[in-house]
Amino acid sequence: MIFLRAPLFISIILLTQLLQAQTSQTISLQKEYWTTAQGSEISFETFDGRQTMILNGTAFANGFEFSNGVLEMEVYANQKRSFAGFVFRKQDENFEEVYMRMHKSRQVDAVQYTPTYHGESNWQLYPEHQAQVTFKSDGWNQLRIEVENLTTTVFVNGEQVLQVERLKSGNLTGAIGIFALFGNRFANLKVTKTGNAVAKEPFPIVTPKKGIIGEWDLTEARPYVEGELNFEDFEKAKTITANTEQSGLLPISRYLAKPTSGNFERNQEAFTVASTTIAVDQAQTRLFSFDFSDKIIVYLNGEAIFYGNNAFRSKNNQFQGHLALTANKIPLKLKKGFNTLHCVVIDKANGWGLIGKLN
Questions:
Q1: Which of 26, 29, 37, 14 minimizes the C-alpha distance to 262?
Q2: The CA-based dihedral angle spanning residues 178, 182, 188, 191, taken in that order and rounded to the nearest 10 degrees
Q3: Mean pLDDT across the stretch 300-311?
């Protein structure tokens, strides 16, 4: 009979548990293992010597919960406009998303990360989370993402192309899915779990730099019809308080669900009114630097002083609609005492956002 000393015995158990936790699982490409989102199209067939899934839309792997670990897939080369990637840590309509834009090979936005809030993608708000990648024009492209707590590292065909230091959905665990806009073919889907994510606070309240507006009051989201805004209505509307990210960016969809969403540029436009109070001890003029997505109407003390359109492709077919704090500057003629700045922010798709600074 062999007796193991307690420390050695415990070490063997822990090592066994660790190896079991890190075992890769292949997600079966058969209909009964997947649940599709509304409006999605899915089919399965043998192709190029492997079992494949053809998807247009989003499909979720039944019974899989994912926190930390590795997600891997192969996507057949496709030079037509199409998107292919992973959805992960999904809870309700909030999740993380990393995908390849197959038609964007060699361009600066070939790979993108975005958080999705209330079913709405927000890629316009985060140009820093994009990467230039050259995809294979024939055969299979491999996508691998490694997730550790709030960090994810993205690899395409074995090469690291992007690292996101702070995942933004706020979820530490959730469902796994596949995303394929305009259709793509997938094979060899694998998941390796390495334990549970740990974060003291996914979204700590941070203090932006001096002058940046770090807190806004938001009205509920409502359908937007041009020419039908009534200032008196939203001036007295109920509001919630929303904190920006450290940069000053306010991702509005994180706080508000749109009346209609999830249908990209086919969405109906929605609006909210973001307001803040500016107190000064004497009359003065301050410069307001800001940007927005998609459109904005700015009111100071009840008077409309600016209208702008920063929507995707609003200026030309290549215009992305990204935000930059220095993009727009207007003087605010402030009266002594309290002044109210109301920003009507109107959005259709791809990222509902606002950023502002007083100089």
A1: 37
A2: -20
A3: 94
Cα–Cα nearest to 266, from 85, 37, 79, 39: 39
What is the 8-class DSSP label of residue 134?
Answer: P
Query: What is the pLDDT, as a whole number, of residue 22?
Result: 66
Place of tokens 């690291």: 160
Distances (CA, A) of 116 to 67, 89, 96, 297: 17, 11, 6, 25
Name the residue type at position 155. F
Dihedral sign of CA atoms 65, 69, 75, 81 in order: positive
Q: What is the CA radius of gyration of the chain?
A: 24
The answer to whether residues 36 and 87 touch, using CB atoms and an 8 Å cutoff, is no
Please give the distance of CA 95 from its chain centroid, rounded to a whole number: 8
- pLDDT at residue number 308: 94
Q: Cα–chain-centroid distance for residue 311? A: 17
**Nearest CA to 343 among 272, 287, 281?**
272
How high is the pLDDT of residue 343? 97
CA–CA gap between residue 254 and residue 74 (Å, rounded)? 31
Tens of pLDDT along 14-43? 444 444 456 789 999 999 999 999 899 999
pLDDT at residue 283 in the model: 96
User: Where is 279: in which H helix or E strand?
Assistant: strand 270-280
Contacts of 102 (CB under 8 A, 6+ apart): 75, 77, 78, 79, 80, 81, 82, 83, 84, 135, 141, 184
Partners of residue 247 on adjacent β-strands: none
Q: Is the peptide bond before 294 cis (omega within 30 degrees of 0)?
A: yes
Residue 205 has what pLDDT? 58
Q: Which of 84, 75, 78 lies closest to 56, judged by CA?
A: 84
pLDDT (tens digit per residue) in 325-350: 989 999 999 999 999 999 999 999 99
Distance of CA 67 to the CA centre of its chain: 17
Nearest to 197 by CA among 223, 169, 159: 169
Select from 194, 192, 189 the least CA-distant residue to 60: 189
CA distance 351 to 251: 7
Q: What is the mean pLDDT of the chain?
A: 90
